Amino acid sequence: HGEWAFPVYPTNRSLVGSVPTPYIWDDRCRAEDATERIKELYNMSKEERNVRGMKGREWALGDEAGFTAEIMGKRVIKNLDKLFETWVPRERYSFINANEYEPNVVNHKLLY
Question: What is the model's pLDDT at position 107?
Answer without folding.
Answer: 76
